[in-house]
Write a structure and sequence with these properties.
By secondary structure, this protein is α+β, with helices and mostly antiparallel strands. The chain contains 20 helices and 24 strands. One of its GO terms (molecular function) is unfolded protein binding.
Amino acid sequence: MNKEHGSLSINSENIFPIIKKWLYSDHDIFIRELISNGSDAITKLKKLELMGEATLPDDNKFRIDVIVNPEEKTLKFIDNGVGMTADEVKEYINQIAFSGATDFLNKYKDKANEDQIIGHFGLGFYSAFMVADKVTIDTLSWQEGAESVHWESEGGTEFTMTQGTRDTRGTEITLYLNEESYEFSNEYRAKEVINKYCSFMPVEIYFKNANAPEEFEESVETTDPEENAADDNIIDAEVKEDGTAVDKKVPKQPEPINNTTPLWMKHPNDCTEEEYKEFYRNVFHDYKEPLFWIHLNMDYPFNLKGILYFPKINTEYDSLEGTIKLYCNQVFIADNIKEVIPEFLMLLKGTIDCPDLPLNVSRSALQNDGFVKKISDYITKKVADKLSGMYKLEKESYENFWDDISPFIKFGCLKDDKFREKMKDFIIFKNLEGKYITLPEYVKASEKADTDETAEENAAQDKAEDTSSKEKSEEASDKKEDEEKHVIYYVTNEQQQSQYINMFKEEGIDALILTHNIDQPFITQLEQHERSYRFQRIDADITDSFKEDNDEEGLKAQHDKLSELFRKVLNNDKLEVKVMKLKNDKVSSMITLSEEGRRMQEMMKMYNMYGMNPDMFGNEQTLVLNANNKLVQYIFENTDSKNVPMICQQLYDLAMLSHKPLDGESMTKFIARSNEIMMLLAK
């Protein structure tokens, strides 16, 4: 066989169905593509004028018109940009994937850059055939002596091109919608799509319903008879003898439906607080004022602008998912593209515009590119810089915002190591007094209140834990034995754990308030990275600070007798019971749950591991009875009394209520038993 060399060919009949059906995921995107083409045509002419290649009249005003005709089921897109000659129509329209924008940049590469040029692939025009059976183009080039061109195609694979009748510079594209796409000839549906994709297009867009009656507005009254007579637009005007016109009506002047200069395109120094808030309300339709915002403005090494808002979230009713809109040259691409926006930033609301984004052919997603990672890292850094700067310079505001922004910051620390490193010194916690402190501040205050016995107990416990670890090397174990773990007490529910909170306050011991569901994984991460910290919920154990000097031998008889009694009454042979002398004799009973067991139980619930037995992970509940309490003493001395079983059950439920809510059956029994006890008191 002879060696052959040639070029691959594309059969339009084969490729066109792919473009129509599979290139774009959303059919409404054709409106974005055709308006973008019009914007590019105008941008080219602006550049030609700057280069001295084209001369425009003094009253020239660039615009794009979109006209719907519900009766004829058509949609028109009109621009007054460069237009096209017959040869350019053959190149840019008749050749699939030949980009007119790219060709323009190549032709004038020494004189023009690609700023504000949207198109790159030469496929946007063909999106029209997703919704139209027939498409026509009427165009007239900006070049002197150019002739207008009429082009039309049904189905997209064959076309007819003749001399046209258009007498003004620019291009008019008419779509004759297919039956499945009649919705786009509806005024409100078309406006909805334009608002979605083109709200901030850099060229003014005017919208018109061809079937709607003309609208009029009252004009300013004038007393000049000649001016009134010359004004052909005056409708139904009453003219007085002196020539004064009253109630003049003139055709209503159209207004653009887009904003060509979005706030993110301005320099931060030129934006006011009210402008930021107004922009937030208009774009996100959220009328709760944002807490604060970050204005991104970068030109090197890539061009990126945007505004990120920290919304005020009512976690009880509002979704924690935010919305970050991604734009390219002021054209909407998509919401929440994870390649550009770090996952933890999805809680925010904002807009990001990056003309350098490596978009795919449909301009609806990103191509994998190391450049995208740089953009993501930059955004993360700017957010961390804003938060750390606020902590240093506006600490009062930072504390006021903390309850709203802490879930976002903690989520960011869990998801992004670089963000965690930048923020670790600026994470604050609310304590029992309602003040905000850092972990080092908590530890420093706790050390002053710690007794020698507590320090020795913690050191002994840490040593036992370290020496029993088989996964650590001997060198690491020796080092860890010398370290002192700082126990950090915390509260997860201020109401349920109020008894423990009061005990802590009485003894002058502080604790942190950690009530959000993200706090548990967050403190676990803190313990992994900060080895000197050990978090313990205030109901996990009874520390020596709450006890009197306990004589274990002296309490052994009470412990054995009460343990047997409570296990029998509660029908729970595995119930762990401890008897100790607490300083507060008003406290009769308490429940403690080991920190490790409770965390494992919560993890099982989080991952729906309900088929596993929590006890296999050491999920131990301990009933603590206060030997100094008179009710406990009465039970010990009167175990044979007929009311003792009822009192035992009541003490257990009271202790459990300070730990967690009772289930339905237990609560029913508790209420009935409480009524019975009150009846006994009444007698």
